[in-house]
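Task card 7
Instruction: Convert sequence to structure tokens.
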Amino acid sequence: MSLVEMLVVVSIFSIAMLALMTSVSTLYRANSYAIAQAYEIFNARSGVQTLVRDMREMSFADDGSFPLARKEAHLIGFYSDIDRDASVEYVEYELISSTNLIKRIYNASNTIPMYNLSSPDETIVVSEYIQNIVFGTPTFVFFDGVGNEVVSSGSVTDVQYIQSQVIVNVDAARNPGQFMLRGSAALRNITNGL
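Output:
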């Protein structure tokens, strides 16, 4: 074998290895994004299911407060027995600007039923990479008994039905695009024929 033949073989082998390594690298990057997106969608779906379950179990607080306490485009606060014990907890779900949907739980005091809302007993990140604020889409929409949207200035006692929606996307600049997950709940313990 001459030196020229050896150089040709090494060059062809190097080009083939470079092409193979580039393909493998691209495949791994594409797969890691798809796996991350699928994982986040799974987490968001679980979070929305938990949120809907908690909303459906809204009830009057241990101190007699109305079941729905706060209603905003990206925040909902309500009373619900989420852990199925003898007392009702105050729960807030909020989409914060860092694209995290969080859940705060406040337990009633044991002696006199009161809720200390200055610091939660537990804070849970329900889902990450929620893009509602980026796209200007409300996380929570509130409706009255006949299906009209209750605007933010409306009373919490008018609300009979709540729709939650989250837009999930790990990286807004890459495909696949956004995934919209929706859930809804009629407030069972306070409805008037809905």
